[in-house]
């Protein structure tokens, strides 16, 4: 499967994913993979129209929440999509966010293991699935039982650590939030509007603590230090530098989540400078 280093991350309902002309343009610009966020439905019915509207784009879920349905549902969806669009789909799964899951959120590692067992029983191949992974234990699980890892809200330093755990030959696709603006106030306002939700989620805050941040960095909308580490902003060269840092640290591709209102315009602008 040719995934390419240029990738997009956005919610599956994004209008750009519903517009065949926009998808055709993104493909021509060199974007090889689209990660569909926002907890796509486990039956994968939201994925098919996007793949149908594009010619060669690889689709990946970022991520199907393992608490939303049994693994058998996702396995059936995988086979339907993979049969219709050979070599163009990766089933990304993960445990989601504890507060959103509620009382069901218990022993998430064990849940992932049992879900992967279910995918095995459903005939989903190891190379057809990826795992949202932040900590060393789940990264090890991604290495041993999937094609690789799709970390979210991380840094190039985390990418280097993840590559060391995954080893060579495993997919590593860290999502990167992007704000194309040189105005610090505008950039950090955009960033904080998207980050505030995550400051209360232990799976993310614990990962940032492992990376050297402190509890103080999570207060009052997040410190500038943390915001700037998680969201790259500036001109095209600034964004290229951050993406290259991920690639140099071992990423295979860096899915870009654009925070600006006109996402297509930003993706057009960035494509020429992100051809490595």
UniProtKB/TrEMBL annotation:
Stored InterPro entries: Bact_Lucif_Oxidored (IPR050766), Lucif-like_OxRdatse_MSMEG_4141 (IPR019922), Luciferase-like_sf (IPR036661)
Coiled coil region boundaries: none
Organism annotation: Actinophytocola oryzae
Gene3D superfamilies: Luciferase-like domain
GO cellular component, one term: cytosol
Leader peptide range in chain numbering: none
GO MF terms held by the record: oxidoreductase activity, acting on paired donors, with incorporation or reduction of molecular oxygen
Top-level taxonomic group: Bacteria
Protein name (database record): Putative F420-dependent oxidoreductase
